[in-house]
Specification:
The chain is of the alpha+beta class. It has six helices and 13 strands. It has a nine-stranded mixed beta sheet with strand order 4-3-1-2-6-5-7-8-9.
């Protein structure tokens, strides 16, 4: 008897040709907690911490709409060093901030709450997060760990493995924070190229899921502009206007620098057929995708 092939959501998504543009989750703040023990399927909510501390951190995160991610270094225990925590914020003016600390006792994590009420520090390098959350989704581990290894070989101080960032079927997923840029469908080779370009402030659209300060239709519109006009820096374009008419959007994307054009992009939202979208999904579900129907300058 032939053993059925194991279902992998990222393989299925690639075969279907699932669009990647417009799939980055919204976010302008991230809480990172280095946690070296095993990561439960539900991440921070499932780890063994003092309930009062966990409640305070969770409440503060909800108030700021911050995503809490567990992190760890690829292939390293770092047992001789205190684990780290961080609060990272995106700023539309590109003055992104970070605040880092260490913890040894659960109660030390209350400092995260205080850090969320302080301005933070500018000038820190970007943090490169690679989702390797295998207990959440098999593809995140199978595709994420080789990417984390390749990136860690080049940028060992910037790269962390992390828990679920969303979009399992687009594994390997990389989130650059607090820049607020998500990439997907990466492998070890393409990830090094994408991150190298990103750190040079040169964003290509091929693996771009989107900018986390934009809505999905705006992300899709900007991706279309980058495909048409070429790669750009993170803040070279601004969304000037977004008009919705039922399942269609008209998005005006304007270049902020001399030589960059203004584009009118029309987007159509469509709901795809029902599929098993993640490796561990118990039933089929449907995703919404944002197709570009027209793009013109002016």
């Amino acid at each position: 008897m032939t053993t059925p092939a194991r279902f992998l959501c990222s393989d299925a998504a690639r075969l279907r040709g699932d669009p990647i543009a417009g799939t980055a989750p919204y976010g302008s703040a991230w809480i990172l907690i280095e946690y070296r023990a095993g990561w439960p399927p539900n991440g921070f909510a499932g780890i063994a911490l003092d309930p009062g501390v966990k409640a305070r951190v969770s409440a503060a995160a909800r108030a700021m709409r911050a995503r809490i991610l567990l992190i760890r270094r690829h292939g390293r225990s770092r047992s001789d060093e205190r684990p780290l925590w961080a609060v990272l914020r995106y700023d539309a003016g590109s003055a992104h901030t970070q605040k880092w600390g260490t913890w040894g006792d659960d109660r030390d994590l209350v400092e995260i709450v205080a850090a969320m009420d302080t301005p933070g520090e500018q000038g820190h390098p970007s943090v490169i997060l690679v989702c390797t959350h295998g207990l959440r989704d098999t593809c995140c581990a199978l595709r994420g760990r080789p990417v984390a290894g390749a990136l860690s070989d080049v940028w060992p101080q910037l790269v962390w493995e992390c828990t679920h960032v969303g979009g399992d079927r687009f594994a390997a997923n990389v989130a650059v924070v607090p820049d607020g840029v998500y990439y997907g469908n990466l492998d070890a080779l393409s990830a090094v190229t994408v991150v190298e370009e990103h750190l040079s402030d040169h964003i290509h659209p091929n693996h771009l899921r989107g900018y986390t300060d934009l809505t999905p239709p705006q992300q899709a519109a900007l991706s279309a502009v980058l495909h048409h006009a070429g790669p750009s820096r993170r803040h070279d374009y601004v969304i000037e206007e977004t008009v919705r008419d039922d399942d269609r959007w008209r998005v005006r994307v304007t270049g902020r620098l001399a030589g960059l054009s203004t584009f009118q992009v029309e987007i159509h939202a469509r709901r795809a057929r029902m599929h098993q979208l993640t490796c561990r999904a118990l039933s089929p579900s449907s995703a919404v995708y944002y197709d570009v129907t027209s793009l013109h300058a002016g």
